[in-house]
Predict the structure.
Amino acid sequence: MQRTTRDWSLSMRRRSLMLGSAASIVLPAWRAGAQSTSVLNIATSGDPGPLDPTPVTSDLLSEVTQLFYETLYIFAPDFSIAPLLASALPEISDGGKRYVIKLRTGVPYHDGTTMNADDVVASLQRWGRLSPRGRTPWAFLDTISAKDATTVEIVLKQPYSPLLNLLAFPNGSPQIMPKHVAIAPDPLKDFTGTGPFKLIEYKPDTWVRVGKFPQYVSPPGKTDGYVGRREALVDEIRFLPSPNPTTRADGLLAGQYHWADNLTPESYARIHGKPDVVPGTLTAALWVLFIMNNKKGVMSNVLTRRAAQAAINCTDALAAAFGDKSLWTLQGSIYPDGTAWYDPEAPGYNQGNTDKAAALLKQAGYKGEPIRILTSTQYDYQYKTAQVIEANLTEAGFKIDLVVTDWATILQRRQNPDQWDAFVTGHGVVPEPSSITVVNPSYPGWWDTPDKHAALEAFVTESDPAKRVPLWHKLQAQFYIDVPTVKIGAGYTTFGASKRMAGYYPGIWPAFWNTKLSA
Amino acid sequence: MVVVMFLVATIVFVISHVIPGDPAAVMLGPSATAADIAALRTRLGLDASLPVQYVQFLNSAIRLRLGESIFLSRSVTQALNERAMLTLQLTVLAAGLATLIGVPIGVLSAVKRGGVLDQVLTAGAMAGASLPSFWIGLTLIEFLAVRLHLLPVAGYGPPDAGMLERLSYLIMPAIALGIPSSALIMRFTRTSMLDVLQEDYVRTARAKGLAPAKVIFKHAFRNARTSVLTVIGLTVAGLLGGAIVTETVFALPGVGNLVVSAVLRRDYPVIQGALLVISGVYVLINLGIDILYAVLDPRVRY
Amino acid sequence: MSDIALLSSPSQPAAPAWRLLRRLIRRRLVLISLFILLIMLVVAVGAPWLAPYSPRKMDIAHRLMAPSAAHWFGTDEFGRDVLSRCMYGAQLSLTVGLLVVIVSLSCGIVLGVVSGYVRQLDGLLMRVTDALMAFPDILLAIALMAALGASLTDVVIALGTVYTPRVARVARGAVLVLRELQFIEAAEALGASSRRVIVVHLLPNLISPLLVQGTFVFAFSILTEAALSFLGAGVPPTSPTWGNMIASAQEYMQNADWLILAPGLCIVLTVLSLQVVGDGLRDALDPRLRRLT
């Protein structure tokens, strides 16, 4: 039979009709999926990486793991400390060397067993061994033991006042897990914890799925930030890595996600006034830090570091990184105004002085060696800051090698002093100054001069809160003499949430318990 | 073909051993001691001499024992398996789209040679082949998904999504991926058809008074289709490459995305495994095209 | 993708250059494209003098400004002048393109001629090129970049490696056909040495098909380099390239679309012009198609 051109074009039309009707079946199904009230879709800036919370201080990881792990203590919005798995604040005696911690009873793990003191001892040992925050106090651990099923005793060789604080936040603190898991060889494969959710599935680069733990026993008390009652009000929470910030915001606007982490200034501005979503900022501003390698390489010379500090224009960096003025502040003091640790003495902060920097560079004997700055596009504000810093430094005569990788690679590389000279990071506000990462001499950056060591020693061995404040001022003064790190300023990270979401706590690590999705 | 695959494997081996960094150190992470790293190197066979490692590598490659991913806590084969379906669907969809658009337009253009339609279509095809696929993708997202809400923005859908729903996530990526290829297919079809239309037997058919459409389809196209098929086969390689970029733009968890993040993260086993498998697939496709070629064109004998 | 474009057949003994040029210019489209390419070249070479601003100079107070008299293409998220960045981007893209063409043509010609002329090596060399062509271009480029590093030289080496096999195939094909032609046989019969045959007779006849392939390699290397920078796997982001400009422009698409349009149009114009010129060259050189156009 002859096939004419007309037949041919008719079959084309038929084909397109079919495609069209297929699309109409498809679209409502996709839209319908977004209307479920039992699954919460959280879009994050990247994959959280291996789920073991102990060896790293990654904020993104804490956002996920705090749903299935709990710590002994937790801090409230006013930075006071409240018990979480412990039943009360610890009894501290013996000049600050002896801690007795009593635990709550009847707290179940996801596998059905009950938490006891042996588990806590094992978990703390693991933390002391693997955690960058835990290693410091564990260096002077004398003994740790389970006095009975619900009592743990820690004895130190010397007083260490930050210890309680170190036990009290979701990031970098000991997460309590069953003993057999804590003593199993690395890497961690079993993620059993006590939290309101339990881990269902981790598929790297695809999602982390946590599901409601029906037998969860909540800490008592009124909910206030991280403190108090916690309840799982959705059946499942999915963390979906969406590294492209535009797609992340687009997905939120389209209803694919209920929450989008870490919006860029543009996306943040874009979702204002949209009917279904509400923009928000986390409760505390991050400190943006330019951390330099004090141990090895070009930056180990204090003059080079001072040159970098002189060159950097913090105003430009913050404006580029955060956009609207309401979202950032210049802040030379390490702690913000309004906290007990505030200290406006910050000589050398925000100079943006290219000539002075060039002169200092010459004085330092800089020979044009390339300076490797690690950064990642995963955190947009960090990437933008790094680019401004790169421009500032280059103008002053530095030769910069901007190394852009993903955050997981930075976490790895920065452990090795041969592999970097500087990196940009954001630091959450922590209640205890000595737990600031850069204050810790074993944290990448390795700030450890004799004067600083002495000042830090004095600070952590002093137990009287009133006496500690001037000791902190001394440390900050040292910070501006040694310039191990340049503080750029403070900025608020933003998020977008669906109006159907209620009950979340937008702390530094956004918490999704007590959160429900309305229809 | 065996020789080619062997050479492919050799190239992959060379590349992955030139990539800087110590895989064992990367795998164990920052808290590893030198002793741990040395032990792992022995276990992985990394302290053997290069020729020995090469033989071991070939050995494992043949059995598709591609090792463990550093970051994904699963074997490379498993990681590839999980993502293969998506990339396959995307590539087939894009190839189908490219063919459906490119071939008819190419035929049309050849038939209407020299006229305004031909010139417009040819210009359009050239423009289409000049557009970077990521640019097309971004524009599509902006207009179809964000402004018009017609299609989902990115990703592959929730875990319980059905087949049709998943396909809706692939529509824009397929378009972005398919357009440059459709342009090339169109132009090649046009050239092949033009070649054929000049042949004597076509003029004979026309002189016999056969209807023009019959001439086009029964005689001309049938003879042009072998070379068109070759082109389609070649575009598949281009599509496999283009999928890498497209999957990144649309956040699709396919093989392409896997490769990009593996390279950026220095996940050596995955880089190696993906290189091997993807090129292997390409060689197989080529083989398939050759066979098809022989089936369709009785003049070809191997 | 590039393979199809490179699948043309070789031509008859080369037409004199001036006849070729005349034939090219006769078609207006080709003329326009050549003109565009010339402009791009001038801009690329003269960027340091022509660019109104330094491409790296930040002016945060004036970020994201729409095109105006002061900034013809507007400013980006750091207040940098987009026009100047596009110009320096042209410098980089065209440099990469040109270098890749040089590398792939030289290596490809050598490989192809040796392969076509020395029967014993033909099989092996062709298997090697098959193996190299079994990798999609971007995949091979990314893997090589991971192995080599991220400087301009590394990009050129990587892309050169990707496109050499394709050029080699074409050269070999041309050599195989040319060998059978009578004037070669005549030269050989007259006792000319192989080297003389190659240099005096073969090479000039390779110029036409390879010239055409050269323009396509140029076009595809620009596209591939853009894709590499877009993925973050190309040269470091501190130097502006059209690809990484598009990558950073993504989030500003709604409010500042000039950021994505300017570099995008630069790519499209350059690649399109190269394709038109390549097509024009092919039509002008191929005697069979001459009847049809």
Q: What stands out?
A: The two ends of chain C are 25 Å apart (CA to CA). Chain C touches chain A at residues 56-58, 60-61, 63, 77-78, 232, 236-238, 250-255 (CB under 8 Å).
